[in-house]
Amino acid sequence: MDTRFVKTLAAVALVPLLLVSCAANDDSTALEGGEKVVAEGKLTVCTHLPYEPFQYQEDGQIVGFDVDMVDLVAKELGVEQTIVNTPFETIETGQAMSTGKCDLAAAGMTITEERSRVMDFSDPYFNATQALLVQKGAGYDSLESLSGKTLGVQTGTTGQEYAEENAPADVELKVFEDLALLSGAVKTGSVDAGINDNGVLYDYVEQNPDTEVSIEFDTGEQYGFAVAKDQNDALLDTTNQVLDQAKQDGTYEKLFRKYFPDAELPGFVG
Ligand code: ARG
């Protein structure tokens, strides 16, 4: 056979495959309760790694508080949770959910008014506040104390926004793609301080005693899971039911203690 003919044959053979994969993309399947999922038999969950202890890799597995919480939802739905790691901007703009990359976002993500316009949030499942990570004894304990210094922020986060709005103009903000790069930069001294959520920073200083959390800013944030805006009420309802049940029956408390042994249980539990 001449190669042109072979190429044509191959191209023709590909056509039905392409059609099938396009169809699968915008045709999500529905589960018994009407919950739409993009991949059959699965709950496809977008997150941004690492955000320990909410989602991080351990022995080649993605684990964490969010992972365990969402497993409860997957179990209720009778499907497997499968996790997709994607830049935080794609999650916090709602894009990852609205384009069908995933059914649910679970990323230690703060419920904000702005985000609520482009995604639907579940009920709150965690309380957080911004906090400052510094090298132990560095003495920076406010944004003002960082005048003329550098402050690391994580891109697309509420911490970045808080720093942009509240840090004196002569604090140089350095933007990092993820938490590990940000906290590593503080530890090695390539920035003077870093701002992020208190839960992850306390976890970090526990493992890195040469660093400390010097102040909390009391931003009063709450985390929510999120689905595509106005497109998956059934999945949102089921998620809220599962959360509610877990908060009432001791499951939430058990999981909370597993990752935050010394923290105060949120008021919405029990
Ligand atoms: N809670 C903060 C926010 O919503 C930070 C979340 C970062 N999460 C992550 N998985 N990287 O902006």
From TrEMBL:
Signal peptide: 1-26
SUPFAM superfamilies according to UniProt: Periplasmic binding protein-like II
Compartment(s) where it occurs, according to its Swiss-Prot or TrEMBL record: Cell envelope
Solute-binding protein family 3/N-terminal domain: residues covered: 42-263
Keywords in alphabetical order: Signal
Major subcellular site: other
Name of the protein in its database record: ABC transporter, substrate-binding protein (Cluster 3, basic aa/glutamine/opines)
Originating species: uncultured Nocardioidaceae bacterium
